[in-house]
Design brief:
heterodimer; A: about 600 residues; alpha+beta; Nucleotidyltransferase, domain 5; Actin, Chain A, domain 4; Substrate Binding Domain Of DNAk, Chain A, domain 1; 6-stranded mixed beta sheet; 5-stranded mixed beta sheet; 16 helices; B: about 190 residues; 7 helices; disordered N terminus
Chain lengths: ~600, ~190
């Protein structure tokens, strides 16, 4: 299959604060530069006259243009408005209730976390294409291990909207373990403590002869480095109210600026003993200034980290292990650079954590390795993962009856047979749940579906067998069969927190409309790719051959190199082609002279 | 809400993993076998081979995973083997040996007497001893079947497993009572 050769499968870490794209080249995972020339793409989208800008350019707008800038959208994926009420006051952008998923309001226009994520993924796709010089249409995308079905579905839908075939959803700590295990050639039992921007995961894995077997996982999809910033900002907000009578939340731009200063202070404190938070007050009413030392910072942060302890202990218990059984504890995620986080992990696991892997890049590297496995290039490696939360159905009395317990290896399946409880009933409603609690309302509602077309019979006689199948992405499929006649039953699954099929279709159509923009960008990339070798060849040979040219010719070549270089930074493909042609013309004589000089040089 | 009806469509976990039907399974070779099957059947081994092949692999792998989980766990393995041999386990009753001190405890609790705490302690001791004796009985019944493969031992085992389920619920009751008494004390 030539397609597999032509189009590499990329690995994408779609993060709360940063996203990355990586690919395996010559057996080594490599993070690809973004179109901004960086390894990290801030997961921030700014809308300028309705047109999205993604990355550092958008991150710069977090403060100057807060109301048009969306970040941390990952926290909203697969969730409803009710879930996020607590977060609503903390986010500098407005969220609103909507059918299924929560809506984000940007200048009166409503969008969703799925669409925001799709814009980020699309930017990564374009970056990978520019960097690799070929089309990229297939990807492995990572998600927090503790993501539920709705959040995984949302991620897959975002990939589809970005024009990517999502070959696999991989859990972030599992991906990290893959990169770590391969890089360090380690075997044994390891714990991955993964504190990201907005989510926390812990996974326990067994590494043995190329098999990466997840034994258990636990976590919190609403806890991350962002919360550390917010803990600092809350202290500042209290002081602002007391000292200046100012409501820090009232002004979106001010709140965003405060959060950013707090984030900067946090990052500074990973190295310095103290950090200064300094911020002009709105309306030119002076400046808020405060020094934060490490001890105070750590005292603020520890309670935020505390819930991760229970997750770690539960994961160990579910794996049937004691912490002494572990051979390694690997730290992943930007916030694990902080000494307070490292101390916390050290204390929980009773051993020195391993910080040797790049905390921002290791997940993307792991995703790229999994992509390489799926490309068939790595037959010795295999990931065996688990489902993070129990899957069950609602039964009488509002109770959840578990069908697939948490930490069951995936793919996993369970069958359940249903009957009717009213005579001549032809349909049965089924409510699928995910979670660990007894009462239905304490668990996550995944979907409701109706078994239809049941033969009308006295109550209790029909037998409909439903199969719940969790695939290797951790996503549920449902099928049903009438046991009396063996007929497949129609199952209409209505996700509780997702986009309807109609919505996805509409978004895909809109993407088609955006395809023209994609094509013109492609032309630009192609023009740059073609001009690049012309410029490089000339830059290489010019110093050697300059003396062979007249002064005027030399100056001409120099000027052409400069204008081409300038054109290549710009966005006009025609200009690039033209300049490339002109430089080629101008330097032709130089090339001829150099060839002749080489031929006439006396042989040694 | 519909009430699910349990059906006994138990697939054979021993067959799924290709190991002999037995109460005694060495975990290291079982893991090796599981890894080998995973390497052959996992969906990651079928990229680009079409949706049908992948779906089949998902289904087969889910059965292997389920079988491995069952066989790794002594209790689940026991129940699976009994079901396959035609001795499905059913809910058990209060064992005679424990009945007297359990009802003693209930009486004391109902009257709210001071002796509740001692009665609870006495019951917990008895329950613990009973569990140990029962474990030994289970093992010897299993050994008997391993030796002669005669169904007699299986019948006895099925009854014991039923009792086991009852004991689990007793353990939960004990925890609840202990917490209640502690609440009254403070």
């Amino acid at each position: 299959m030539s397609r597999a050769v032509d189009s590499p499968i990329v690995g994408i870490d779609l993060g709360t604060t940063h996203s990355l794209v990586a690919v395996v080249q010559d057996g080594v995972p490599r993070v690809l530069p973004t179109r901004e020339g960086r390894n990290l793409l801030p997961s921030v989208v700014n809308f300028q006259d309705g047109r999205p800008v993604v990355g550092f350019a958008a991150r710069g707008c977090k403060i100057t243009d807060a109301s048009h800038t969306v970040y941390s959208a990952k926290r909203l994926l697969g969730r409803g408005f009710e879930d996020l009420k607590d977060l609503a006051g903390q986010l500098p952008y407005r969220i609103e209730p909507g059918e299924g998923v929560v809506r984000i309001s940007v200048e009166g226009r409503s969008t969703t976390a799925i669409e925001i994520s799709a814009l980020i993924l699309r930017e990564l796709k374009l970056s990978a294409e520019a960097s690799l010089g070929c089309a990229v249409s297939r990807a492995v995308i990572t998600v927090p291990a503790y993501f539920n079905d709705a959040q995984r579905q949302a991620t897959r839908t975002a990939g589809r909207l970005a024009g990517l075939e999502v070959l696999r959803i991989v859990n972030e700590p599992t991906a990290a373990a893959l990169a770590y295990g391969l890089d360090r050639k380690r075997e044994g039992l390891i714990a991955v403590y993964d504190l990201g921007g907005g989510t926390f995961d812990v996974s326990i894995l067994k590494l043995h002869e190329g098999i990466f077997e997840v034994l258990s996982t636990n976590g919190n999809t609403g806890l991350g480095g962002d919360d550390l910033d917010r803990a600092l900002a809350a202290v500042c907000a209290r002081e602002l109210r007391a000292e200046h009578g100012l409501d820090a939340h009232a002004d979106l731009d001010f709140w965003a600026a405060l959060l950013e200063r707090c984030e900067a202070a946090k990052i500074r404190l990973s190295e310095a003993a103290s950090a200064l938070i300094e911020l002009p007050l709105p309306g030119g009413k002076g400046v808020y200034r405060r020094t934060l030392d490490r001890a105070e910072f750590e005292a603020l942060v520890r309670p935020v980290l505390e819930p991760t302890r229970a997750s770690c202990l539960q994961a160990l218990a579910d794996a049937g292990l004691r912490r002494e059984d572990l051979s390694d504890v690997v730290l992943v995620g930007g916030p694990t650079r902080l000494s307070v986080v490292q101390d916390f992990a050290r204390q929980v696991f009773g051993r020195e954590p391993n910080t040797s892997m790049h905390p921002d890049e290791v997940v993307a590297q792991g995703a790229a390795i999994q992509a390489d496995i799926l490309a068939g290039n790595n037959p010795d490696l295999l990931l065996l993962d688990v489902v993070p939360l129990s899957l069950g159905i609602e039964t009488y009395g509002g109770l959840m009856s578990p069908l697939i317990p948490r930490n069951t290896r995936i793919p996993a399946s369970a069958q359940e047979t249903f009957t009717t409880f009213v005579d001549h009933q032809t349909a049965v409603d089924i409510h699928v749940l995910q979670g660990e609690r007894e009462r239905v309302e304490d668990n996550r509602s995944l979907a409701r579906f109706k078994l239809k077309g049941i033969t009308p019979l006295p109550a209790g006689l029909p037998r409909v067998q439903v199969q719940f199948l969790i695939d290797a992405d951790g996503i549920l499929q449902v099928s049903a069969k009438d046991l009396r006649d063996g007929h497949e039953q129609s199952v209409e699954v209505r996700p509780s927190f997702g986009l309807s099929d109609a919505e996805v279709e509409r978004m895909l159509r809109e993407r088609e409309a955006g395809a023209e923009a994609d094509r013109s960008f492609r032309t630009l990339v192609d023009a740059r790719t073609e001009a690049e070798p012309v410029l490089r060849a000339c830059q290489r040979s010019f110093p050697d051959g300059r003396h062979l040219l007249s002064e005027e010719e030399a100056r001409n070549v120099e000027a052409r190199m400069e204008t081409l270089q300038a054109a290549m930074v710009g966005n006009d493909p025609e200009k690039i082609r033209q300049e490339s042609f002109l430089l080629d013309q101008a330097s032709r004589k130089l090339a001829d002279l150099l060839v002749r000089a080489a031929l006439t040089r006396p042989k040694v | 809400m519909p009430q699910p009806v349990r059906t006994d469509e138990a697939a054979d976990p021993f067959a799924a993993l290709g190991v002999a039907r037995s109460f005694r399974i060495e975990l290291a070779p079982l893991e090796k076998r599981f890894y080998a099957l995973s390497r052959a059947l996992h969906p990651d081994r079928f990229p680009g081979k079409g949706a049908v092949a992948v779906q089949r692999s998902v289904e087969r792998m889910s059965l292997v995973n389920q079988a491995y989980r069952t066989l790794k766990d002594v209790g689940l393995r026991r129940e699976a083997l009994l079901a396959l041999e035609g001795f499905p386990t059913s809910g058990g009753k209060m064992p005679m040996e424990l009945a007297e001190s359990w009802f003693d405890l209930q009486d004391a609790l109902a009257e709210g007497t001071e002796s509740s705490r001692f009665k609870l302690q006495a019951f917990e001791t008895e329950l613990h001893e009973f569990q140990e004796v029962r474990e030994a009985r289970l093992r010897s019944l299993e050994d008997r079947w391993e030796a002669d493969r005669a169904p007699g031992a299986l019948q006895a085992l099925a009854t014991e497993v039923g009792v086991g389920a009852y004991l689990k619920s007793l353990e939960r009751d004990v925890v609840r009572i202990r917490e209640r008494l502690r609440g009254q004390a403070s």
